[in-house]
Amino acid sequence: MLEDSGIKLSSVATDITGVSGRAMLEALISGQDSPAVLAELAHGRMRSKIPALTEALTGRFTDHHAFTARLFLDRIDAHSRDIATLDARIDEHMKPFSGARELLATIPGISGRIAEVIIAETGGDMSVFPTAGHLASWAGTAPGANESAGRVKSTKTRPGNRYLKRALGTAALTVSRSQTTYLGAKYRRIKSRRGPMKALVAVEHSMLTAIWHMLTTGECYADPGPDYYTRHQPLRSKDRALHQLEALGYHVTLEPRQHTG
Predict the structure, then answer these.
(1) How does residue 150 score in pLDDT terms, banded at 50, 70 and 90?
(2) C-beta separation of 211 from 108 below 8 A
(3) What CA–CA distances, in Å, run from 185 to 16, 157, 203?
(4) Which 3 state secondary structure label does DSSP give 143?
(5) How far apart are CA 57 and CA 46, in angstroms?
(6) What is the rounded CA–CA span in Å between residue 207 and residue 114?
(7) Bridge partner list, 136
(8) Interior CA angle at 30 toward 28 and 34, to 5°?
(9) 104 by DSSP, 3-state: which?
(10) Buried/exposed 70-109: b ≥16 CB within 10 Å, e otherwise
């Protein structure tokens, strides 16, 4: 839109439709052509970039550029109004499920919007799923069973509800970066052995298991903590740490710590 005018506002302002960027674009459309005056329209932290803005706003902005800029801004405004209308309609339909939405949002990685997708796709009624495993299988986060002559040929997950899987994938990816939660620790533990994709599916499965129990009992999510496996499986945790050090070329000898009275 602005590139051929020589004006490079996006090189300084990350969001050219934000408060500062929008004010500058509106001024350009209205005929203001002074880079210094335009740069002074910056708000908040953008004011520290006034010298760079002045340089970026130096260029040739013609009537045609103003026409196309107005067209794009009007389209953005129309989309924003449509999104606001849809959000209001969703909020209205979610009122009967507000308790369930707040409950699900206590799970790390699950935002209010993701909770709404989960409720919309499952109906928020866990009575139709006899167990958490049935829910996971229906959603497509449970490994498939492809066995012949006692040999498992594939453990790929089965097809499931794509909207629910997409929402769970977003939630799992978000919590995978967490250093302070059980789900974040689970992701890293499985990723080191089986790769990131299987680790994400495992986190999605854990989330669905928690969701089934929470919507069945009405209880909030209780995070077991990032040290859950270390606390409950100390020997396996020790062996894993030893193997990692040995893989790096170290020879490790362990000695019990002496307890002092």
Answers:
(1) very low
(2) no
(3) 38, 22, 10
(4) strand
(5) 14
(6) 12
(7) none
(8) 45
(9) helix
(10) eeebeeeeeeeeeeeeeeeeeeeebeebeebbebbbebbb
pTM over 0.85, yes/no: no
- d(Cα 55, Cα 224) in Å, to the nearest integer? 53
What's the gap between Cα 123 and its chain centre? 22
Q: Give ∠ CA 32-34-40 in degrees, rounded to 5.
A: 95
The DSSP secondary structure of 145-174, one letter per residue, reads -EEETTEEEE-PBPP--HHHHHHHHHHHHH
- Render pLDDT for 207-236 as a digit per residue (tens, 0 to 9): 999 999 999 999 999 999 988 888 776 666
Q: Is pLDDT larger for residue 160 or for residue 108?
A: 108
Helical axes 162-175 vs 132-139, angle rounded to 10°: 110
Residue 14 banded pLDDT, cuts 50, 70, 90: confident
Terminal CA-to-CA distance of the chain, rounded, Å?
75
Q: Does residue 223 come out as left (phi exceeding 0), alpha (psi in the -120 to 50 range) or beta?
A: beta
Structure tokens at 152: 């498992």
CB 20 within 8 A of CB 46: yes
Structural tokens at position 24: 């500058």
Question: Which amino acid, one-letter code, is at 9?
Answer: L
Concatenate the DSSP letters of all residues of 197-235 into one string: HHHHHHHHHHHHHHHHHHHHH-PPP----TTHHHHH-HH
115 and 101 Cβ atoms separated by less than 8 Å = yes
Residue 157 β-bridge partners = 143
**What average pLDDT does this structure show over 49-77?**
94
Domain ranges of the chain: 3-93, 105-235
